[in-house]
Design brief:
heterodimer, A: mainly beta, seven-stranded mixed β-sheet, 11 strands, B: mainly beta, six-stranded mixed β-sheet, five-stranded antiparallel β-sheet, 57% strand, globular
Chain lengths: 118, 114
């Protein structure tokens, strides 16, 4: 099976702009989670989507949003970019069926999108 | 909310020696503890995980132990090799309304010296 893919891999934006990142999960996986990775803050949870619904949310401002499509692909959007938004944005997919079982919890990461805000 | 502390932040060991990385978590309801390895410029890769109903798990040279009472878990790598050099992250999560939210430690940069 192909792994988690993310596009684009690299992105340069200026302050005030907005950006949309895309994540395609492993085939058959229904849950997509997003994380922000920075040298100072490490890996921080943004949100999780399952069946096109946001199921869980981290402590990020409303400028960070996301959505999931019926084919489980997910996008995240950051509006009004700030310098501090420069980071590696990782998505991870998992099976997570209904009801969820332990073996379906494992999250597999994509290669990430490196965003630089100037 | 959940908080995960990871130590040490950097670790340097001689090839062939063992390496131990420790994590503590704050939420006693956490029930799933994965460890990820991230090589430079690459994605985090799951190397081993443990659930709260198990005290220890081994996979070849890698083992993880969990002490629920003390709320800490550790990664043990034996017979270290140069390819073990990477940043290792621990994480903790609990199932809430069917969702899992991984909270990560700050990472440990492991260097294996030949």
């Amino acid at each position: 099976k192909a792994g988690v893919t993310q596009t684009p891999r690299y992105l340069i934006k200026t302050r005030g702009q907005q950006v949309t990142l895309s994540c395609s999960p492993i085939s058959g996986h229904r849950s997509v989670s997003w994380y922000q990775q920075t040298p100072g803050q490490g890996l921080q949870f943004l949100f999780e989507y399952f069946s096109e619904t946001q199921r869980n949310k981290g402590n990020f401002p409303g400028r960070f949003s996301g959505r999931q499509f019926s084919n489980s692909r997910s996008e995240m959007n950051v509006s009004t970019l700030e310098l501090g938004d420069s980071a590696l944005y990782l998505c991870a997919s998992s099976l997570r069926g209904l009801p969820p079982t332990e073996s379906q919890e494992t999250q597999y990461f994509g290669p990430g999108t490196r965003l630089l805000v100037l | 909310g959940e908080n995960v502390e990871q130590h040490p932040s950097t670790l340097s060991v001689q090839e062939g020696d063992s390496a131990v990385i420790k994590c503590t978590y704050s939420d006693s309801a956490s029930n799933y503890f994965p460890w990820y390895k991230q090589e430079l410029g690459k994605r985090p890769q799951l190397i081993i995980d443990i659930r709260s109903n198990v005290g220890e798990k081994k996979d070849q040279r890698i083992a993880v132990t969990l002490n629920k009472t003390a709320k800490h878990f550790s990664l043990h790598i034996t017979e270290t090799q140069p390819e073990d050099s990477a940043v290792y992250f621990c994480a903790a999560s609990k199932r809430h309304q069917g969702a899992q939210k991984l909270v990560f430690g700050q990472g440990t940069r492991l260097t294996i010296n030949p």
